[in-house]
Write a structure and sequence with these properties.
The complex is a heterodimer of chains A (402) and B (322). With 402 residues, chain A is mostly helical. Chain A has helices spanning 2-10, 18-46, 54-79, 90-95, 97-108, 112-138, 146-166, 168-171, 190-214, 216-226, 228-233, 238-264, 274-288, 293-312, 314-318, 325-343, 361-366, 382-401, and strands at residues 177-178, 266-267. Chain B has two domains: 5-275, no CATH class; 289-322, no CATH class. Chain B is built from 14 helices and two strands, in the order H-H-H-H-E-E-H-H-H-H-H-H-H-H-H-H. Chain B is globular and about 60 Å long. Classes of the chains: A mainly alpha (402), B mainly alpha (322). Chains A and B meet through helix 7, helix 13 and helix 16 of A and helix 3, helix 4, helix 10 and helix 12 of B.
Chain lengths: 402, 322
């Protein structure tokens, strides 16, 4: 099976099929969803921002590919002297799209550098646009209660789909839009390359997130999650930090939308439904354990494997049910979400203690905090209060220890 | 008397939305969470009407009491099995809200499956339908126009009477205000919660049962209407039942009237953007005054110019105690 995938990767004109195809598919979707779920873990698990608008950020990535990259490629290819059908008006944009993409693809087959630079350009643009959309969707409710933010973000996801469906120049409306194949120059199976690139980007973003979470900024995020009033009282700009986190995670999430568009070579708003890109990542996050990247990986792998197998094998399942299997999937999603919240609120892998370089945090927590107050300057009436608090804290710890 | 059909449509929609917004607000008051499954109760009501009219050949109005009881029972089951358990386990507001989203997904899928089951069993197309044929006429008006408004007014009046005059209503208000203090005073919080969940579910399902008599309905209508419900409830201030009445009416009427006027002025494409109107209300309210009409009212009462304006309109009679 591995040889088959490797063969498809290397040899020309061979598309992998069967079980190997399923593995490539699962790998691709694992890569995509792990990016979204890790960004969600960054926001909800570590900073306590309940981002229910992942679908908006993912759809922005898709729209970047269809509205910006495709336009840029068509312009550049037209300037390079290739005869293209007219594509400037809305009608031509959709109607001539398949022929134009076919013409561009033949030209792209000899231009590896152009394809790769287009991929990098798209990733950069979707990162920036995702951050901008993160700022915009945060605008109404980032200062308010978390539930208000959830309400606004959920409705925003529907709004983005409505825009995509009705504004033709973004992604071709309901018909969708074909995307030039930037890996046309590559002889082997393009989807395997996309899967590998996606997994690589997932790995890179994992290291970025890990570094950020283990930095002082990560500790600040967790402090905001635990008690924002305390953090605000020591002079930190809680709203600003939250907005930064949301913007950064939005940018990363948008990248996965672009990668999905390149994987399918096709963009349509129906691919970016709210249920798929918001609720499933939430299930992965909660199943694996919020605040914990290893848990996110585990939850993502489990959910994606089950879901892709259901989708790929649905013709066999369909004989059992009288209704479309898609609804069985939804019921599974709902039941799993509630069951995990009820029976394993910390997920499969609970959150670990912080890792701070040079500090043995566990020792600090486990040890009795011994503070010598004799050297401290005396303040009337306050010192007894503070020592009283420490006494009660110590007493509580002893109880907990027993 | 001739009322344009579009005004009738917006009044019907506004009265349905008012019932739903009141229920949403009551849930928010008692459980402190936005219940995303609230719109889906309406979806259940839609299929109660469908079953009564298309399958059993009865008048859909006979299904209204059944819809009320069924919605209440489903709501109570949800409270007992999920929300109450999570509250006792100490889940925060975010976890509870996610659980209501999960319930919404589950219930919507259940409605879809029921629609497919109807198709398999009875051979009717239950995925997109309108029950206007089963309506009757009162004095030249479509029955649902009169019935929906009367039902909404009756519900609001009964609710107002209950919340201000009866013992259980006062117990509900005190539970919403401070559950621990209420339990100290001998109020059984659990039964009050059960009662309020029954009431909200029942009212939502009743409102849903009225929807297919005027509007095109699909299994996902209930899930889609939640944005309008939240907009109406948020406009009213999220924590005020009377605000929800005003909010539901305003959002309901403006959703249909603005779409119609926009279509007349700008062209048919405006109709596609109808879901953006409640979204606009949500964002505008959150940006201008996050506590909605209630917050605006409190702000006006607190300021001198606001007080003089309110007195000149006649809304504020006596000097408020400061």
């Amino acid at each position: 099976m591995i040889q088959e995938i490797a063969l498809g990767l290397l040899t020309s004109g061979v598309a992998v099929g069967g079980a190997s195809r399923l593995i490539v598919d699962i790998a691709m979707y694992f890569g995509l969803f792990v990016i979204v779920a890790m960004a969600l873990n960054f926001q909800y698990g570590n900073a306590g921002i309940p981002n229910m608008g992942c679908a908006v950020q993912v759809i922005i990535g898709g729209f970047t590919v269809s509205a910006i990259t495709t336009r840029l490629i068509l312009t550049l290819v037209g300037n390079a002297g290739v005869e293209l059908l007219p594509w400037t008006s809305d009608y031509d944009w959709v109607y001539n799209n398949p022929s134009n993409v076919a013409i561009v693809n033949t030209w792209l087959s000899g231009e590896p550098l152009f394809g790769i630079s287009m991929l990098l350009f798209t990733l950069a643009v979707s990162l920036v646009l995702g951050a901008i959309i993160g700022w915009i969707i945060a605008l109404p409710a980032i200062r308010l209660r978390a539930t208000y933010l959830m309400i606004v973000l959920i409705t925003m996801a529907d709004a983005s789909q409505i825009f995509g469906r009705n504004i033709v120049w973004i992604s071709g409306g309901t018909l969708g839009l074909f995307i030039p194949d930037i890996f046309k120059w590559y002889p082997g199976d393009r989807t395997i390359v996309m899967a590998i690139i996606t997994l690589l980007i997932g790995l890179i973003s994992f290291f970025i997130f890990r570094t950020m979470l283990n930095s002082p900024y990560g500790r600040l995020m967790r402090a905001i999650r635990e008690n924002e009033v305390t953090v605000g009282s020591v002079g930190k700009n809680v709203v600003g930090i939250r907005r930064n986190i949301l913007m950064f995670a939005s940018g990363i999430t948008a990248i996965s939308g672009s990668l999905l568009a390149f994987y399918f070579s096709y963009v349509v708003e129906a691919n970016y439904q709210r249920a798929l890109w918001t609720y499933w990542p939430w299930l992965m996050l909660i199943l694996g354990g919020p605040g914990n990247n290893a848990g996110t990986f585990l939850g993502c792998a489990l959910v994606i494997a089950v879901r892709r197998v259901i989708i790929v094998e649905k013709w066999f399942l369909q004989e059992v049910f009288f209704f479309p299997v898609a609804y069985f999937e939804q019921i599974l999603l709902g039941v799993l979400l509630i069951a995990v919240i009820m029976f394993r609120p910390n997920g499969l892998i609970p959150e670990k203690l912080l890792y701070i370089p040079g500090v043995n945090y566990r020792k600090l927590v486990d040890e009795e905090a011994i503070v010598d107050w004799r050297g401290a300057p005396k303040a009337r009436g306050v010192s007894s209060g503070i020592s009283g608090i420490f006494r009660t804290l110590g007493g509580k710890k002893e109880e907990a220890g027993d | 008397m001739l009322i344009p059909a579009i005004w009738m449509a917006s009044l019907v929609y506004a009265s349905e939305l008012t019932l739903l917004s009141i229920g949403f607000t009551l849930t928010y008051l008692t459980a402190k969470i936005p219940n995303f499954a609230h719109g889906t109760y309406a979806g259940i009501g839609i299929y109660v009407s469908y079953t009564f009219s298309k399958i059993w050949g009865l008048s859909p109005y006979l299904g209204f009491p059944i819809a009320f009881i069924l919605g209440g029972i489903i709501s109570v089951i949800i409270y007992v099995l999920v929300i109450g358990v999570l509250q006792r386990l100490g889940g925060g507001a975010i976890v509870l809200t996610i659980s209501t989203l999960a319930i919404q997904i589950f219930l919507t899928a259940g409605i879809q499956i029921y629609a497919f089951w109807l198709r398999a069993k009875f051979g009717t197309y239950a995925l997109l339908f309108l029950l206007k044929d089963f309506d009757f006429r009162i004095a030249g008006f479509p029955g649902i126009f009169v019935v929906s408004m009367i039902l909404t007014v009756v519900c609001v009046v009964i609710l107002h009477y209950m919340l201000t005059r009866t013992k259980i209503g006062i117990a509900m208000r005190s539970t919403a205000e401070d559950p621990e203090l209420a339990s100290v005073l001998g109020i059984n919080i659990n039964s009050i919660q059960l009662f309020s969940w029954f009431l909200t579910g029942g009212m939502a399902c009743l409102a849903g049962a009225m929807i297919p008599l005027w509007f095109m309905s699909t299994p996902t209508t209930g899930a889609m209407i939640i944005t309008s419900i939240m907009a109406g409830s948020l406009l009213g201030g999220f924590e005020n039942v009377y605000g929800a009445v005003i909010g539901g009416i305003v959002v309901g009427i403006s959703e249909i009237m603005l779409t119609t006027w926009g279509q007349a002025l700008l062209g048919a494409w405006v109709g596609e953007y109808r879901p953006l109107i409640p979204m606009f209300f949500l964002v505008a309210v959150l940006l201008i005054e996050p506590r909605g009409l209630q917050g605006a009212w409190e702000r006006m009462v607190a300021s001198d110019t606001g007080q003089s304006i309110l007195k000149s309109i006649g809304l504020l009679k006596e000097e408020p105690v400061t």
